[in-house]
């Protein structure tokens, strides 16, 4: 197997460089190596690249957090996935042990890190992901549609909180991907 791959690396304010990097290698028994099938550009990615950045990211990280991949290799304790499975990724990796995680509020995790922001993400040929962050999808699902799993999950979560009743009027501000998914 090859040892290098192409990736879009955040090098500095306003600087994203496509270059050859080392292929990720499974180091923990709960990790999964994915072959990236499709990735989308999020507003977060754009804001990371603004000068000055509106959203912080670690210099040297591979950007991208909205993606679908094919399982290429699994760590020795991974039993729920096998090579060839198609998966979407929850990019926000939580600790599971802080007070917020224990209260069932992982979105407020005190030690959260995100793929494509603090650790390498999707704008590459391969991506290394903890198995707990993966969700199987059908092989029949078009990868170009499956990349919407992460932004659509934001919309579904928000819609559940709104409790809009039939016949009520709502206003959706913004014609970006999230606003369009609401309509």
From TrEMBL:
Domain called Alcohol dehydrogenase-like N-terminal: residue spans: 29-137
Any one Gene Ontology molecular-function term assigned to this protein's record: zinc ion binding
Keywords, alphabetical: Metal-binding, Oxidoreductase, Zinc
Xref: Pfam families: ADH_N (PF08240)
UniProt name for this protein: L-threonine 3-dehydrogenase
Taxonomic classification: Bacteria, Candidatus Aerophobota
């Amino acid at each position: 197997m090859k040892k290098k791959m192409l990736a879009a690396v955040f090098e500095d304010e306003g600087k994203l460089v496509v270059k050859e990097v080392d292929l990720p290698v499974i180091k923990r028994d709960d990790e999964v190596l994915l072959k990236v099938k499709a990735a989308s550009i999020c507003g977060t990615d754009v804001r990371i690249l603004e000068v000055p950045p509106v959203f912080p990211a670690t210099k040297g990280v591979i950007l991208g957090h909205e993606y679908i991949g094919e399982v290429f290799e699994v760590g020795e304790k991974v039993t729920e996935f096998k090579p060839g499975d198609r998966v979407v990724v929850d990019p926000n990796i939580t600790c599971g042990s802080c007070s917020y995680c224990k209260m069932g509020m992982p979105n407020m995790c005190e030690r959260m890190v995100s793929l494509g922001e603090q650790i390498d993400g999707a704008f590459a040929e391969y991506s290394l992901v903890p198995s707990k962050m993966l969700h199987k999808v059908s092989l029949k699902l078009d990868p170009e549609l499956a990349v919407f799993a992460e932004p659509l999950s934001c919309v579904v979560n928000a819609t559940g909180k709104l409790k809009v009743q039939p016949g009520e009027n709502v206003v959706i501000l913004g014609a970006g991907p999230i606003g369009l998914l609401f309509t």
